[in-house]
Specification:
The complex is a heterodimer of chains A (about 120) and B (about 800). By secondary structure, chain A is mainly alpha-helical. Chain A has six helices and three strands. The longest helix of chain A is centred in the N-terminal third of the chain and has 26 residues. Chain A starts with a helix and ends with a strand. Chain B is globular. The two termini of chain B are about 55 Å apart. Classes of the chains: A mainly alpha (about 120), B alpha+beta (about 800).
Chain lengths: ~120, ~800
């Protein structure tokens, strides 16, 4: 094949461009991977399991002033009847402000009270 | 004027393209393309006589094209598209089965797929007449419908899945181009009643051909080994369901997909075979041509009336008709007439991948082969030559043909498959003759296998096929191992593709004038430059970008950093069924589209199918630096098999393996550190979910994300020990927002963390645990469900993360 001078120039420029482009691509492919290092014990524990359990226990407490009848029956020791009485007391006498108010409900004596107090929040 | 028809047809084509562009790309792009098209044509007309007449004819057809395209999309009054939304709704439909059902999918996804021409629809309490085409997916059918059956069928009706992820396949658009506007998901438990059959001679022919197809299928399955049978069924009957993923991938990588699927090549071969047989029995030419036309249409219907084969049949029919009528058979006119026919009835088809590939292939053969022939200095064979010289010429011509088709199709294949396959030049040399052999022998097998006393002959033919086909597939697999046999690329933009073809056309015209080979070399170099620089121009994002892919109820998150490094956390589901592998369908296309071929680190949170499924494909098709996991796997089940396959891959490809536990910090990325909050070997949780790797990712800019994998309440309770460290800007909700166990623990977790944004990888809000949604509401956290919003993308900015969803939700 015989090329004119213009054609030779065009061919050379294109060939050089192709080489540069391929080199750029190759450098991307040959880039080394990030060197992953594992450091141990890098996180500090803020709470102990005991503290967490305590928090969770507090969360599990039932708010005696806003809970529905069904939720109150979830407490071990309070059945449907007693729960119903608690709600009725609440409706007629208003909110329970302290533990002593609970004792006023018919069916909750000192013994029952001791049993349920840790599950109840005011 | 040599080909007067071309002018109006080209105008029509440009009209359709302009209409589509102004709809999807924007009015500006539409105007540009129109101007370009008009300019091109003005130049073309400059060298012809009768300019004015042709100019106005062209303009007229251009407007017709725009009008035809727009009208095809106007929702017909009460068309079925008016009744569908993105959400699935219960519906009862009455209509006619438009095509013979095909079986797709395996195991629990096995279903019959068929289009239904609907006439009436019952939704809620509205019953109305309607029209249009829907696709029905019938799972566990009690009865198998046949083409022409009139049915009442119930199920869940909705729009097809659009594209939910960047670079994801838009199934909804794909179906709409075929005229299908909705999808019905029906199972054996839903209402199904056949109320009659459509009458008609055409129907009887189609039914007959489908019975023939089933019998042929039985014969093939009976005589051939599984591998050979899968290939033969696909090539001769158009039934591709048995082809394994690996085989399919092999054909994609060697550029020989047109061998596997019934395409123009098959139609051409069948036509040649019929013509050969007819010549042998000395059939008169005209009558013979007529028989061939019938033959190729019958074959097209026989293999399932696929658009690609119907197109080829129409093209061939036009050619043969012009030969029948005595006119000089001009391939280009036949081509354009067939294209016009299709464009007129289905304007949206011209954007279908198959359509573009078919026509580009034929155009390449017509126009580029002369270029490559001249480049190699090939002269036609001379009578009386030595056999070896003839053979060499034949080989050279084949290479020239293969090369021409590769060059002509390269931008289109790159667009649709994100791959460039130089090896096709080599693989076609073997593939086409093998196809010829398989088609001939395959039909012989069907005939001899169905006739009792010819059974021994059938056995003999089956033995040959059992030898040839596995050898061929092995050879193709060997070709894929050649370096640079296939190169993954990002799909070139429309502008680039058009520019490529403009350069090709200019060099073709210039070559015709001056007949100089140097032109070819210059344009070839120019075009290669285009591709190389298009790939080299990919840049990593300006700031850290995290993409949470929408993969249903499965996890896959990708982190792209400004220095070009990349990390993948989990690979969603897949591997069991072709077309459902998230690695193949969602992750790989995205990575290739961004020019990413190396992944610095792949992390597996736990070996459950919805996290590990897509990783096998990723590990095999990408270069991975490090593989990290917690080291645990369930003892039984196929998930252990998947895990072992990954371990084998890690060993074979020399990927560095690292195991992490609670307290570890993954360092090495310039822009991010990852803290491992779970698992702890001492915990002893039974459920693998509670042994998932939970990560807190902290960028050097101080922004953070918490990837909770599938951790449930037990594991989360232990993580509460880290107190305020659990805070992050983005939370990836644990266990896809589904059942978690002790909700008090979760409440504590969320109130401690105070996450402003929360990403949930699930189908939609209805699938989430209701209590969890209530808690999120209470804590005022913003929830993004990938199933509803599509992929969620978080881009780090100066003041924190900016969150985008890929799908803009419409009500």
């Amino acid at each position: 094949m015989r090329f004119t001078i213009q054609e030779k120039i065009a061919l050379i420029i294109l060939a050089i461009l192709l080489c540069i482009g391929s080199a750029v691509l190759y450098s991307k492919e040959a880039r080394p991977y990030c060197r992953i290092i594992i450091e141990e014990n890098g996180i500090r524990e803020e709470f102990t399991l005991k503290e967490i359990e305590a928090r969770l226990k507090e969360r599990r407490k039932i708010d005696i002033n806003t809970a529905a009848c069904k939720e109150i029956t979830a407490i071990d020791g309070i059945g449907e009847v007693l729960a119903g009485r608690i709600v009725r007391y609440r409706d007629t006498h208003g909110a329970f402000y302290s533990e002593k108010d609970l004792l006023k409900v018919e069916g909750i004596g000192q013994k029952k009270f001791e049993k349920i107090r840790e599950y109840v929040r005011f | 004027m040599k080909r007067p028809l071309l002018v109006p047809i080209a105008g029509f084509l440009i009209g359709i393209i302009a209409a589509e562009s102004s709809g999807s790309l924007g009015l500006m792009e539409g105007i540009w393309i129109t101007i370009l098209g008009a300019a091109a044509f003005l130049i073309f007309l400059f060298i012809r006589k009768n300019k004015t007449f042709y100019f106005f004819l062209c303009l007229l057809f251009f407007l017709l094209g725009v009008f035809r395209y727009s009208s095809s999309f106007t929702l017909e009054e009460n068309g079925i598209s008016n009744f569908v939304t993105e959400a699935q709704k219960e519906a009862l439909l009455f209509g006619t089965v438009a095509k013979e059902p095909e079986r797709k999918g395996i195991s629990y996804l096995s279903r019959l797929v068929f289009p239904l021409e609907v006439e009436r629809v019952l939704m809620g309490d509205r019953e109305e007449p309607t029209g249009g085409l829907i696709q029905v997916n019938l799972y566990k059918p009690q009865e198998e419908p046949r083409i022409g059956d009139r049915l009442i069928i119930g199920g869940k009706l909705s729009l097809a899945e659009g594209s939910n992820n960047p670079a994801g396949f838009d199934y909804r658009k794909y179906l709409r181009r075929k005229g299908i506007n909705a999808v019905l998901s029906s199972s054996g438990k839903d209402y199904y009643l056949k109320v009659g059959e459509k009458k008609g001679g055409a129907l009887r022919i189609r039914r007959f051909l489908s019975v023939l197809r089933n019998n042929s299928d039985q014969a093939i399955k009976k005589y051939l080994s599984p591998g050979a049978s899968a290939f033969t069924r696909s090539v001769i009957l158009g039934l591709r369901s048995d082809i394994s993923d690996e085989v399919n991938d092999t054909f994609v990588k060697t550029g020989t997909m047109h061998i596997l699927a019934v395409s123009g090549l098959h139609i051409g071969l069948v036509a040649l075979i019929i013509m050969g047989v007819l010549r042998f029995v000395r059939c008169p030419r005209s009558f013979g041509h007529f028989l061939v036309i019938i033959g190729i249409f019958a074959f097209s219907i026989f293999t399932g009336s696929r658009p690609s084969s119907m197109r080829a049949a129409i093209m061939g029919a036009f050619l043969l008709i012009s030969m029948l009528l005595g006119r000089k058979s001009d391939i280009v006119s036949a081509l354009s007439l067939s294209a016009f026919l299709i464009m007129f009835f289905y304007p949206a088809q011209i954007f279908d991948g198959g359509f573009v590939l078919s026509y580009m292939a034929v155009l390449s053969i017509i126009y580029i082969v002369p270029l490559t022939d001249t480049f190699f200095g090939l002269k036609p064979p001379v009578f009386g030559e030595r056999k070896t010289l003839r053979a060499k010429k034949y080989l050279a011509k084949s290479i020239s043909l293969s090369l021409a088709v590769w060059i002509g199709m390269m931008p289109v294949i790159a667009s649709y498959f994100r791959i460039v396959t130089p090896s096709v030049v080599l693989s076609n040399l073997l593939a086409v003759p093998v196809l010829f052999i398989v088609v001939i022998l395959g039909f012989c097998l069907i005939v001899t296998g169905s006739v009792g006393f010819l059974a021994p002959l059938a056995g003999f033919i089956a033995d040959i096929l059992d030898l040839v086909i596995p050898f061929f597939i092995k050879a193709m697999q060997l070709v894929t191992k050649i370096p640079f046999s296939h190169i993954r690329v990002s799909a070139p933009s429309v502008g680039l593709v058009v520019f490529f073809y403009v350069v090709l056309i200019i060099s073709f015209l210039y070559f015709h004038k001056n007949n100089k080979k140097s032109v070819l070399l210059i344009s070839a170099l120019f075009v290669f430059n285009l591709f190389v620089w298009n790939e080299a121009a990919h840049r990593p994002p300006d700031s850290t970008r995290i993409t949470f892919f929408d993969t249903g109820k499965a996890d896959a998150s990708l982190m792209e950093f400004p220095d070009g490094s990349v990390m993948l956390i989990d690979g969603a589901s897949g591997g069991m069924v072709k077309g459902m592998d998230a690695g193949y369908c969602i992750l790989a296309p995205y990575l290739w589209q961004k020019g990413i071929r190396r992944i610095d680190c792949v992390l597996l949170t736990h070996a459950h199918e919805d996290h590990i499924g897509g990783l096998a494909y990723i590990l095999k098709n990408f270069d991975v630096g490090t593989f990290i996991d917690g080291g645990e796997v369930e003892e039984d089940g196929f998930e252990k098999r998947l895990y072992k396959e990954i371990q084998r891959c890690v060993k074979k490809r020399n990927i560095r393996y690292v195991r992490v536990k609670r307290g570890d910090v993954i360092k090495g990325f310039p822009h991010m550190d990852l803290f491992v909050l779970n698992p702890d070997n001492k915990s002893g949780f039974k459920d693998l979910n509670n042994r998932s790797v939970v990560l807190k990712a902290v960028t050097k800019g101080g922004n953070s994300l918490l990837f909770c994998a599938d951790a449930e309440a037990e594991a989360i309770k232990e993580m509460l020990k880290f107190g305020s460290f659990l805070q992050a800007d983005i939370l990836k909700a644990p266990h896809h927002g589904a059942g978690l166990g002790d909700m008090y623990v979760i409440e504590e977790f969320l109130s401690q963390g105070k996450y402003p944004f929360c990403v949930v990888t699930n189908y939609d809000a209805l699938h989430l645990n209701k209590e969890l949604v209530k808690i999120f509401d209470r804590e005022k956290a913003d929830m993004y469900v990938t199933g509803e919003k599509g992929a969620i993308i978080a881009q780090e900015e100066d003041d924190g993360f900016k969150i985008f969803s890929y799908k803009k939700t419409k009500s």
